[in-house]
Design brief:
alpha+beta; six-stranded antiparallel β-sheet; 6 helices; elongated
Length: 156
């Protein structure tokens, strides 16, 4: 059974690490180019000074760029998240939101760079905003992409 964007969003929201961290996946677009994720800051997800725990903000941005790339590229590629950076700009309160976007043009560029089994390391960026639209944090995630060896071998 093929996973649909809607099923993945529901499943990821109910996944225990996300569920207990206040992380909700609002949607994956049907073409896998966009995702929206929320963090609900509450008694379980706040820090000592009652603002969003930085680990929760990092967790809310963890797998989404690699998932968007992976679903657009298909099964012939190894794709995973390798590194992340987060710059906290102001305290996060209430509901925080992160939007993730990976265009088909970017994926085509990655596909070409990974042709023949070459390792590609690509950085993606997003921001975490509060309900007022103020930027709470800037986030960068590095994604590793490589064509699978079986695919490269059949071309050679």
């Amino acid at each position: 059974m093929r996973i649909t964007p809607r099923r993945l969003a529901i499943g990821m929201s109910l996944w225990i690490p996300n569920l207990f961290s206040g992380i909700r996946i609002r949607r994956f677009s049907d073409d896998w180019t966009h995702a929206t994720v929320e963090l609900h800051v509450n008694v379980l997800t706040r820090n000592y000074v009652k603002t969003a725990f930085g680990g929760s903000m990092s967790a809310m941005t963890d797998p989404y760029f690699f998932m968007l790339v992976m679903h657009q590229l298909g099964r012939d590629y190894v794709v995973w998240d390798t590194r992340g950076e987060i710059e906290f700009l102001k305290p996060g309160r209430g509901v925080l939101t992160a939007e993730f976007a990976v265009s088909p043009e970017k994926v085509a560029e990655i596909r070409e760079s990974a042709r023949g089994g070459a390792k590609v390391l690509e950085w993606f960026e997003t921001v975490i905003t509060d309900r007022d639209g103020d930027v709470v944090a800037k986030v960068r995630r590095e994604v590793y992409i490589r064509e699978k060896k079986r695919v490269t071998a059949t071309r050679g």
